[in-house]
Sequence to fold (130 residues):
Amino acid sequence: MSDKAVVQGLYDSFATGNVPAVIGAFSPDIEWTEAEGFMYGGTYSGPNAVLENVFMKLGTEWEGFSAVPSKIIDGGDGNVAAFGSYSGKYLATGKSMSVPFAHEWSLRDGLVVGFHQHTDTAVIARDIGI
Fold:
């Protein structure tokens, strides 16, 4: 399976709520970075840290949160870029957002070893009222 296909599969699994499939594609030494200024901003090491600090919060603090790519580009050598948009309603404020993202994915031997999020955190904070 190509690296691009692995990444597309991750978005597809996330969209259907199959978080175990997403986590299963992570290397034990994954480094996952959420953008500074984002409510979950920071770097998380290991699949369990990503699950606890990102995915579980997205699943419990949001209604209908989605990350939908419009373009995925295989840059070769295990580097994949995805461009798309986030949307969802933040339950704490009842406000919704829709904002573009760019994701950098790094893969080795078919597993995700790195992820870096780029998004407009100021627009997210403004739109959801935090």
